[in-house]
Amino acid sequence: MPTMLIALPLYLLAFLGVCLAFPKNANLKPTNGATYLSPSLSIWLIIGMLICIGDSCWNTLRTAVLTKMYDRESSSQIFALSKFFQSTTTCASFFYSSILDLHTQMIILAVSLIAASICFTIAWKIHLREIEIAASAKHTTSISIVCGNNNP
């Protein structure tokens, strides 16, 4: 969970930086359009670094959660399914990137990121609740076995 709290603001800050540092149509054609920030290599490198760190955090989180939530026998299938959906959405982004302007793409990414973070939080809380219920049931069973053995 702390990893997601690192990745989410880094990504959102990078998306905001892209919107401020690049012209709206920069991905569609060469442009000298106005930007909110003056063009600077250091700003572009910082934006790239934020995206890389956010991506590293998000991928680490995904791998850790998948291995924690599922048993060893099915974790490889779940991870493959996760990579399939990641590849599918990447493929879709290649198609719409030649149609939609850069700022619209950043909005799509930000909304998708927030939705994924909300879904992750819900799934993680459900998983923790299931662990608590299983531990409680195990504790109750062990108490009844101990109490049953003490009564002749």
TrEMBL record:
TM segment ranges: 37-58, 105-124
Locations listed in the record: Membrane
Membrane topology of the entry: Multi-pass membrane protein
Nucleotide-binding keyword on record: no
KW Transmembrane (keyword) present: yes
Keywords per UniProt: Glycoprotein, Membrane, Signal, Transmembrane, Transmembrane helix
This protein's GO CC annotations: membrane
InterPro entries per record: Ion_channel_UNC-93 (IPR010291), UNC-93-like_regulator (IPR051617)
Pfam families (alphabetical): UNC-93
Signal peptide interval: 1-21
Database matches in PANTHER family: ET TRANSLATION PRODUCT-RELATED, UNC93-LIKE PROTEIN MFSD11
Name under which the protein is recorded: Solute carrier family 40 protein
Native species: Brugia timori
